[in-house]
Amino acid sequence: MTSAPAIVHVIDDDAAVRDSIRLLLRTEDFDVRAHASARDFLTSVEPSEGGCVVTDVRMPGTSGLELLAEIKARGLDLPVIVITAHADVALAVQAMKAGAMDLLEKPFDDEALLGAVRQALGHFVEGESRGSEAASARDRLASLTAREREVLVGVLEGRPNKIIAHELGISVRTVEAHRARLMVKMQAKSLSELVRISVLVPRAASL
Question: Which of 65, 95, 125 is the last residue of a domain?
Answer without folding.
Answer: 125
